Automatic annotation (TrEMBL):
Membrane topology: Multi-pass membrane protein
Keyword Cell inner membrane among UniProt keywords: yes
Protein name: TRAP transporter large permease protein
Entry similarity comment: Belongs to the TRAP transporter large permease family.
Keyword check for NADP: no
Organism (species): Vibrio eleionomae
Subcellular localization(s) per the UniProt record: Cell inner membrane
Length: 439
């Protein structure tokens, strides 16, 4: 049987496995193993699987992943999200939609030490949602603002999705981290503009609490004191990488150590039970991600054997189609895939094919990563597989239905599309910081 036909059948088989709910890593491994078995033999499939499993995690640079995961677990346990929300709530108290504004900026601040959009949405679902409901905020508006603000962690470093993108493409993760700073801040600002505009036009959906109206300026500025730990830790990690003082792996180690020390000083991590819980959570997340990476790389090697990536790349590059039309096709494919499978699976399935095409067309790989992250943010909150919506639904309580979350996200998705258009039109927003990095 023709290698290309076998590869096409395998891709359809992978999509089927994902559709019926087979775990992501297992879907990649089973599909690839059967495909290589047909192309070669049992010995070849076993040898390639073993070599991939070793090479996927043997490199010292891969320690960046568990270190940043550990940093996020310590930061969540130490109460950094509560600090961010409390401090920014004081600073924005007199604004229309102040609690939603605090959620957007608080999520952005917490993202600098977390790296997981699911964790950010879950934490702020437990912190911000009860406060919004207590002060009479519209339920749909509250849920939409929290779910979309949580997705900022996909863009703002140290995003775990950046790490996965780096592993699939060999683009330096430190440069990807820096590239996400300005687009992440731009997205947070766009959310705040929409929140302010909606709350100003319809005050009933986001009433200003009486105690906020009469708060003195001195008390508002005191909110900055609640942010000093986040500013110190996030600034040290990002500033150290930007200045070339240390690598992304070293930044992860410093961040994890800093979050641990602050958690010990504040108290939450002094408990052995709490410490074990954070370590166990980090180990579980890291193990899952490494299994996904092994499976994805195994699948990409299988695709390489079928020559599908080369054939598609050669056809598109030699077709004479303008680069913007090919980029538009990529965005449409990701948008459709994001509706049915998780972003990590979409990247693992498409990047071995798409990334060589994009680089051959002359597009900046760092800018392309930022565009991918923006699509990831949109996929995280849109039905039917918007993982942030399901995470918030689980965290906010039994009275919240996932369709209510989806109903509230659309004004913010419109913001994401506007920001996506800006990033497509002005690549310098994504590339300026990484291009000025030292080291």
């Amino acid at each position: 049987m023709d290698f290309t036909i076998i590869g096409t059948i395998a891709i359809l088989g992978l999509l089927f496995f994902l559709f019926i709910g087979l775990p992501l890593a297992l879907s990649f491994v089973v599909t690839s193993f059967i495909g290589i078995l047909v192309l070669l033999n049992v010995h070849g499939a076993m040898s390639l699987l073993g070599e991939t499993a070793y090479s996927a995690i043997a490199s010292p640079t891969f320690t960046v992943l568990p270190l940043f995961v550990l940093m996020g677990a310590f930061a969540a346990t130490a109460g950094f999200a509560e600090q961010a929300y409390k401090g920014i709530s004081k600073l924005t108290g007199s604004l229309p939609g102040s609690l939603a504004v605090a959620t957007a900026f608080g999520s952005a601040a917490f993202s600098t030490v977390c790296g997981s959009s699911l964790a950010t949405a879950s934490v702020f679902g437990r912190i911000a949602y009860p406060e919004m409901i207590r002060y009479g905020y519209e339920k749909k508006f509250s849920l939409g603002s929290i779910a979309c603000s949580g997705s900022l962690a996909a863009m703002i470093p140290p995003s775990g999705m950046f790490i996965l993108f780096s592993l699939f493409t060999d683009v330096p993760v430190g440069k990807l981290f820096m590239a996400g700073v300005l687009p992440g801040l731009l997205t947070a600002l766009a959310y705040v503009v929409v929140i302010y505009w909606k709350a100003k036009r319809h005050p009933e959906i986001a009433p200003i609490p009486d105690k906020e109206k009469h708060m003195k300026r001195r008390d508002r500025m005191a909110g900055l004191l609640d942010l000093w730990q986040l500013i110190l830790l996030g600034g040290a990690v990002l500033g150290g990488m930007y200045s070339g003082l240390f690598t992304a792996t070293e930044a992860g180690a410093i961040g994890a150590l800093g979050a641990l020390l602050m958690g010990l000083i504040k108290g939450p991590l002094r408990s052995l039970k709490t410490m074990r819980s954070s370590l166990r959570e980090s180990a579980g997340i890291t193990t899952t991600l490494f299994f996904i990476i092994i499976g994805a790389l195994f699948f990409s090697r299988f695709l390489g054997l079928t020559r599908i990536p080369f054939d598609i790349s050669h056809y598109l590059v030699s077709s004479g189609l303008p680069g913007w039309s090919i980029m538009a096709m990529v965005l449409v494919i990701w948008f459709l895939m994001g509706m049915i499978i998780v972003p990590a699976a979409a990247f693992a399935l498409t990047l071995p094919i798409i990334f060589p095409i994009i680089t051959q067309l002359g597009y900046d790989p760092i800018w392309f990563c930022i565009i991918a992250m923006k699509m990831c943010e949109i996929a995280g909150v849109t039905p039917p597989v918007g993982l942030n919506a399901f995470a918030l639904n689980s965290a906010a309580g039994k009275d919240v239905k996932v369709n209510e979350v989806f109903a509230g996200v659309w004004p913010f998705v419109a913001c994401d599309l506007v920001v996506l258009a800006i990033l497509l039109s002005f690549p310098i927003i994504s590339t300026w910081l990484p291009n000025t990095m030292f080291g």
